[in-house]
Amino acid sequence: MVISYEYDVKEIEKLSASTASADMIVYPSNTSKIVVEVDTDEKDYEPVVEEGTRSITFKFQKGPKGTVIDVPFLNELFRRGPRVDSVKIGVPQKILQVTLATASGEIDVRDLDLDSLKITQVSGDMNISSVLSSDISINSVSGDCNIRDSNYRDGAFKTVSGDMIVRNLTPMARKTKLSSVSGDLTLEYAGKPRLDISISAVSGEVVSDLPLIKKEKRHYVTSEEAPEEFLSMSTVSGDVSIKVKSGAETRGAAIPRQRKQQEEDVRDKLGLDEEIFDEETRKVLKMLKEGKLTEEYAKQMLEMIGYSQEEIDQIVMREVDEQDRKPENGSGGDAQ
After folding, report:
1. What are the strands of the beta sheet with 229-235, ordered from one edge?
2. pLDDT per residue over 153-164, tens digit each?
3. pTM of the predicted model, to two decimals?
4. Domains of the chain: which residue ranges?
5. Residues 180, 121: Cα–Cα separation, whole Å
């Protein structure tokens, strides 16, 4: 059963939405209102909506009748609230900032023109197509992310084990940062860019269609001319690829407008409540105590959840100190 809702935009410029395991599709609204369609079997279902002066936040939860989350330490999460299978959100042109978060579920964002797009996802694939945004930030733990026919001025893409692919990127002045633990990283340009690159691949292979002129350790340029784009690509065991589409008539995405960027609190970026944060954190720390996660991998997971480096160091140090004080400690192991 699909239930539809409409919300007046008024002075709203920022939209946030979070789900537990429901899929999300975000697309341009053909009206001046925010249009929400929720696929649920609950007749009296109502999303949790929090509206501020210039922002609106939607929270969609999925209960025990839903699909089991395929991330071990999250299997017991989100066992409350109504069942929601999928969510569609129509975004009017006035909305300039979109923030999305999900623990398990696919995310599809298409045809938007924004100031800022921020997505945090634990598992599930992500597809972003024909999106223009001054700032794009993506954090993913295990899902693959495919970005195509889109463009940005400042991009930060981070994954633990999923593959990250950016296709048909227009050469222009920008900053791009891609990082992973074991996932592959691929950038495909629609023309030949002039890059200043920092590349770190501990055990993965580095392949480039462009000449890499070494400046110093892990630092390269692709031309003797002044660089347009500053690019950082780092992975522990994944492969790194820089590709250029062949063909003189190849065209990339349009160039996003120059807009003022705003910094946000990390919890605001995620759009998740404190209870979910605490539960996710407890699951990670439980696996660390049981030796199912190494300390380094636990830090990666906590970073994906949204903690700062200082907070991560404090949390992990406290747990390690508690383990050291116990008379018998289990041995640590590799991530499963």
Report:
1. 48-51, 55-59, 14-19, 97-104, 113-123, 132-140, 151-159, 174-180, 229-235, 195-201, 219-221, 213-216
2. 999 999 988 899
3. 0.73
4. 273-322
5. 14
